Amino acid sequence: MQPIDRVLSKAVSLGMTQTSFATAMGLNVQVVNNWKKRGIPPAQYAAIAKTLGVSIEWIINGGDVSLSNVAPVPNGLSRMIPLISWVQAGNWCEAIDNYAAGDAETWLPCPVKAGSRAFALRVTGASMEPKYQEGEMIYVDPDRPPLNKKDVVVRNNLDNSVTFKQLVIEDGRMYLRPLNPDWKPKIIPLDEHCTICGVVFFRGMEV
User: For FRET with 47, which of 19, 39, 80, 100 sits at 20 to 30 Å CA-CA?
Assistant: First the structure.
């Protein structure tokens, strides 16, 4: 059995479809489909192991999935966070409570530590290419400090629109910058009408 066959079989045993497994990984389902033909990129083994609760050794070589062969999941990494819309992100920008089960489009496992208000969004548009591709998931934590060169989700309080850009802090002032070199404008002042909703901390790998 090939690694991809083991991985998909394990996902099914956990109640996942191929689409929900791809979503949990922060990937488009077509990416997982491509693994069937080309094999799993080694860089994805660690994320798969965390998502499925198995070891990298098991993914590669198979064998029994026993306690001695399962990669331990540190405390706080196994909880689920909501995948929400960009409109909801604007409305919840200053929420102080955890989200209710019915608030989300779906719930995704969070494989790294995050605050209790963390949420996920599906990337739209091309302003943050090539680092982020349209359709992939980003995980956002409102409780992380917005530091220079961090990627952030920001709400415009005038129209409640939400955008996703890199934060630049220079001479005490804040700006937003798209990562796509062809995107205009190349720099956007962050003024008093804007609120930082959270810092992007995961997209299938830590960022």
Answer: 100
* pTM assigned to the model: 0.61
CATH code linked to domain 80-202 = 2.10.109.10
Tens-digit pLDDT profile for the chain (207 aa)?
788 999 999 999 888 888 989 888 888 889 999 998 888 887 788 888 888 888 877 888 777 654 333 344 444 444 678 888 888 887 666 655 555 545 666 777 777 788 888 899 999 899 999 999 888 889 999 989 999 999 999 999 888 889 999 999 999 899 999 999 999 999 999 999 999 999 999 886 555
179 close to 127: Cβ distance less than 8 angstroms: yes
Cα 91 to the chain's mean position, in Å? 20
Query: Are 164 and 138 spatial neighbours (Cβ–Cβ below 8 Å)?
Result: yes
Among 2.60.120.1440, 1.10.260.40, 3.40.630.190, 3.50.50.60, what is the CATH number of 3-69?
Answer: 1.10.260.40
Query: CA–CA separation, 177 vs 129, rounded Å?
Result: 12
